[in-house]
């Protein structure tokens, strides 16, 4: 069994289309979206429609929440805020209804915990050890027996591991794939489809297989120039176009 995990699509239909093509070519039927379907880029309605049509298992991101309830965008930086306001005007009521119904946290097949930033809080980050520890502790208490969680929000690929002694470390994921230890717990981030921030402009996602448990990070080229042109035509901030090219 294989699951494709995508996150932070951020209204980039060109990147999403390329990633779905890659997933389809591998014959993977279960796709999970870890939130932030909209925001920043210029094709929010197209992205919501495609994710809805394809029955992609989706959870709520902080930008998804902010386009339907603008008070949640108050802490955003000015570029993100402007894009949220623009997206809210562009989306139809059916798109907003889809976003409003998304949950913060889901348990897939009783085995895999899914959330955007941290369980129950799409604004929280897992970037540092204390944050990873807090989430592992949450899992041990609230979802005992669940060893693996997938999260997004940072726009960077990451794997946090908790071993049987309780030691937590961030793994070095230089290679494109690695095996999980069946005794350990993991927090795994696929990076971002639509606005990667690891100095590589390509769309990032991952494929998880369960027997044995292997994570494969993927990075695919897409039609970057069209995505940038649309941002400029929509009169969204120029930096949003530039950052896509730089992967930042
Ligand atoms: Fe995001």
List the helices and strands and how they pair.
Elements: E1 2-6, H1 13-25, E2 30-33, H2 44-53, E3 57-58, H3 62-68, H4 78-90, H5 93-100, E4 105-108, E5 112-115, H6 129-142, E6 148-150, E7 157-162, E8 168-170, E9 177-179, E10 185-190, E11 203-210, E12 213-220, H7 224-233, H8 238-246
Tell me what the structure shows:
This protein has 248 residues and is of the alpha/beta class. It has a single domain, classed as Metallo-dependent phosphatases (Purple Acid Phosphatase, chain A, domain 2), CATH 3.60.21. It has helices spanning 13-25, 44-53, 62-68, 78-90, 93-100, 129-142, 224-233, 238-246, and strands spanning 2-6, 30-33, 57-58, 105-108, 112-115, 148-150, 157-162, 168-170, 177-179, 185-190, 203-210, 213-220. Helix 3 packs across helix 4 (78-90). The longest helix has 14 residues, at 129-142. The radius of gyration is 17 Å and the shape is globular. The structure holds fe (ii) ion (FE2). Fe (ii) ion binds at residues 8, 10, 36, 61, 63, 153, 155.
């Amino acid at each position: 069994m294989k699951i494709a995990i995508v996150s932070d699509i951020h209204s980039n239909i060109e990147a999403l289309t390329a990633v779905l093509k890659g997933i389809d070519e591998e014959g993977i039927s279960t796709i999970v979206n870890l939130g932030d379907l909209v925001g920043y880029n210029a094709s929010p309605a197209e992205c919501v429609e495609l994710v809805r049509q394809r029955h992609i298992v989706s959870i709520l991101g902080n930008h998804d929440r902010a386009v339907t309830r603008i008070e949640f965008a108050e802490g955003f930086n000015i570029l993100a805020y402007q894009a949220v306001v623009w997206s809210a005007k562009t989306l139809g009521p059916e798109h907003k209804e889809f976003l409003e119904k998304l949950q913060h946290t889901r348990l897939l097949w009783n085995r895999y915990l899914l959330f955007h930033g941290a369980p129950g809080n799409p604004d929280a980050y897992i970037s540092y050890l204390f944050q990873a520890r807090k989430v592992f502790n949450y899992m041990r208490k609230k979802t005992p027996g669940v060893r693996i969680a997938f999260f997004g929000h940072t726009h960077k690929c990451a794997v946090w591991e908790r071993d049987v002694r309780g030691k937590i470390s961030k793994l070095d994921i230089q290679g494109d794939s690695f095996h999980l230890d069946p005794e350990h717990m993991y927090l795994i981030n696929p990076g971002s489809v639509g606005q990667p921030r690891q100095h590589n402009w390509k769309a990032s996602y991952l494929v998880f297989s369960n027997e044995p448990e292997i994570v494969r990070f993927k990075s695919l080229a897409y039609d970057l120039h069209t995505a940038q042109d649309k941002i400029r035509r929509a009169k969204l901030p120029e930096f949003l176009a530039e950052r896509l090219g730089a992967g930042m």
